[in-house]
UniProtKB/TrEMBL annotation:
Protein name stated in the entry: ATP-binding cassette domain-containing protein
Entry-linked PANTHER family: ALIPHATIC SULFONATES IMPORT ATP-BINDING PROTEIN SSUB, TAURINE IMPORT ATP-BINDING PROTEIN-RELATED
MF terms in GO: ATP binding; ATP hydrolysis activity
A Pfam entry, by short name: ABC_tran
Alphabetic keyword roster: ATP-binding, Nucleotide-binding, Transport
Length: 261
């Protein structure tokens, strides 16, 4: 990792600088990606397929072997910072040999080793309930729908009460009504536990509804992301969808996409 500009890393929040990945067998590198997210803010990340969104989230979660550039959290390299990270991978990332409940208690056992068995089970039950799938606690992933697996993955990430939340299209497999309900639930959860969050989505309205900042990523190799402050995030969640500023922001983001992609 480069350390050429350590003095510029902000003391709080997430900072990504010059993030570039060369996959074996792929001619062009992914990136470069630069963005910064203040502590406790949600950054919606929107970008064309293949631009490197999942690659960035995997790297931030410590799941990618090698990359160039810096990913810092709270002023120090994220790896080794001790930050608790909640990841919802694009493919849900559930352990197939464990039930919904055990997927959550296992993750809690790793991230929060001080918790007792009963506390972990209670946390699992509570978060599965909040995601509307409390009755699936004993179900294995192979016997759940994609949307149900996705909700287990979101419940698992929130149950950790993480410092950094990384969500890779977490609501993509849900029907419109369940999705809207879980967007509201997500905001309520986040208000209760305001983790710094990267929320990847292909849905412009979802990006605007949830993000305090919106990062519009260009295709890989085509320049830097555009970071937009989102005035909609200043409104109460219940008022966002119908506000004039929401429609104005929709136009702004669509124009940025048209310009960058
Ligand atoms: N393990 C890998 N080996 C080689 N190339 C990879 C690997 N993983 C991803 N890539 C390539 O890197 C690029 C970025 O992939 P990534 O999954 O990060 O894109 P994305 O922005 O998440 O796309 P999508 O919106 O489709 O999920 C793509 O061109 C992809 O084919
Ligand atoms: Mg992806």
């Amino acid at each position: 990792m480069s350390s050429s500009v350590p003095n510029k890393i902000p003391a709080a929040g997430l900072a990504v600088r010059g993030f570039t990945v060369s996959y074996p067998g792929r001619a062009e590198a992914v990136g470069p990606i630069a963005l910064s997210v203040p502590q406790g803010a949600i950054c919606s990340v929107i970008g064309p397929s293949g631009c490197g969104k999942s690659t960035l989230l995997r790297a931030a979660a410590g799941l990618l072997g090698a990359y160039e550039g810096e990913i810092a959290f709270g002023g120090q390299p994220l790896a080794g910072s001790g930050a608790v990270i909640g990841l919802v991978p694009q493919n849900y990332g559930l352990l197939p040999w464990k039930t919904a409940e055990a997927n959550i208690t296992t993750a809690l056992g790793i991230a929060r080793p001080g918790l007792g068995r009963r506390e972990k089970r209670e946390a699992a039950a509570r978060w599965l309930g909040l995601m509307g799938i409390g009755e699936l606690a004993d179900r294995y992933p192979a016997r759940m729908s994609g949307g149900q697996q996705q909700r287990v993955a979101v419940a698992r990430a929130f149950a950790l009460e993480p410092d950094l939340l990384l969500l890779d299209e977490p609501f993509s497999a849900l029907d419109a009504l369940t999705r809207e309900a879980l967007q509201e639930r997500f905001l309520a959860n986040w208000e209760a536990y305001p983790a710094t969050a990267l929320f990847v989505t292909h849905d412009v309205e979802e990006a605007i509804l949830l993000g305090g900042i919106i990062a519009v990523l260009p295709p890989s190799g085509a320049g830097s992301p555009l970071l937009l402050d989102n005035p909609v995030s200043g409104l109460a969640p219940g008022e966002r969808r119908t506000s004039a500023v929401f429609f104005e922001m929709t136009r702004t983001v669509r124009k940025a996409m048209a310009d960058l992609w």
